[in-house]
TrEMBL record:
Family designation: Belongs to the shikimate dehydrogenase family.
Catalysis performed (reactions): shikimate + NADP(+) = 3-dehydroshikimate + NADPH + H(+)
Protein name: Shikimate dehydrogenase (NADP(+))
Binding site for NADP(+): D73, V203, G225
InterPro entries attached to this UniProt entry: Aminoacid_DH-like_N_sf, NAD(P)-bd_dom_sf, Shikimate_DH, Shikimate_DH-bd_N, Shikimate_DH_fam, Shikm_DH/Glu-tRNA_Rdtase
Catalytic residues (positions): K61 (proton acceptor)
CDD domains listed in its UniProt record: NAD_bind_Shikimate_DH
EC number: 1.1.1.25
GO MF: NADP binding; shikimate 3-dehydrogenase (NADP+) activity
Gene: aroE
Biological or metabolic pathway of the protein: Metabolic intermediate biosynthesis; chorismate biosynthesis; chorismate from D-erythrose 4-phosphate and phosphoenolpyruvate: step 4/7
Length: 260
């Protein structure tokens, strides 16, 4: 029997066990997927070794990068990992968030220039994803510290953004709106940016954030982070089980999220 887990802090709300266990069951795998609440990042390596594979969520994705013996190219470029395999006494690190994002925006056409709001781990994964497609990117953030670590990308503070600049897609990677009514940046700035854009994407899922509501008012085609969550799960599953049943796994995971 194989054992998998999602490790994070907090972890109680994670949907990953529900998604993975339904796929494991439907694809008749002798395996189980659990939640692991870790508080101390120095214990991550020891805990990972208890499982055949794990997903890593907030706040340990950067620590997952550090403890890995082998890093996939995407992990090296992004600087964080959300999927680890433990085999032959070694930890192998992958990042399926970035492919998850690309799959999620599959139906956004003709995207040539993207504005990413926020400069944390998710912003880096999304910027890497867009870079692999040769899409022009600007990353904007409310404060300087994180921007200074993003030397590979064009970056600026919200205060220095040109409100009339055209972007095909605007992505909110901040947690503004997750537990409050905040927008990631000023409403006037966003209104101007939305006037010239076609698509808006929010990595938050399961609720209409103020960012999404405003984008809707400007008739943008919008999408939340649910498909990204689903697709990162599908690709993690394929790594865990060393298989390729993409459509079947996606359907099983999608169904799991619809179950009461
Ligand atoms: P980080 O902590 O690495 O980065 C957070 C970023 O958000 C920073 O740039 C921070 O700015 C900014 N920020 C936080 N609060 C506010 C606010 N109130 N107003 C403006 N900016 C703010 O987080 P992650 O990148 O790891 O995660 C971000 C979100 O992405 C989380 O909500 C997470 O759940 C979600 N996510 C969704 C996924 C999916 O599959 N749908 C996958 C992965 C993550 P500053 O630098 O100034 O502090």
């Amino acid at each position: 029997m194989k054992f998998f887990a999602v490790i994070g802090d907090p972890i109680v709300h994670s949907k990953s066990p529900r998604m993975h266990n339904n796929a494991l069951q439907i694809l008749r795998q002798n395996a189980v997927y659990v939640k692991y609440h870790l508080k101390d990042k120095t214990k991550l390596r020891d805990i990972v070794k208890l499982f055949d594979g794990v997903n890593i969520t907030i706040p340990f994705k950067e620590e997952a990068f550090k403890i890995a013996d082998f890093k996939d190219d995407s992990v090296t470029c992004i600087g964080s990992a959300n999927t680890l395999l433990y085999k032959h006494n070694q930890i192998y690190a992958y990042n399926t968030d970035y492919i998850g994002f690309l799959k999620a925006i599959d139906d956004f056409y003709n995207v040539k220039k993207v504005l990413i709001l926020g400069a944390g781990g998710t912003a880096k994964a999304i910027a890497y994803a867009l870079k692999t497609k040769n899409i022009q990117i600007l990353i904007a953030n409310r404060s300087k510290a994180r921007l200074e670590l993003l030397s590979d990308y064009q970056c600026c503070l919200y205060d220095d953004l040109n409100p009339n600049e055209h972007f095909d897609l605007i992505v909110n990677t901040t947690s503004a709106g997750l537990n409050n009514m905040d927008l990631p940046c000023s409403k006037d700035l966003l209104k101007n940016l939305f006037l010239n854009a076609s698509y808006a994407f929010d990595v938050i899922y399961g609720k209409q954030t103020p960012f999404m509501k405003l984008a809707k008012q400007y008739n943008l085609q919008i999408k939340d982070g649910l498909q990204m969550l689903l697709w990162q799960g599908v690709f993690a599953y394929e790594l865990f089980l060393d298989c390729k049943n993409t459509e079947e796994i996606f359907k099983a995971m999608e169904l799991a999220l619809k179950l009461p």
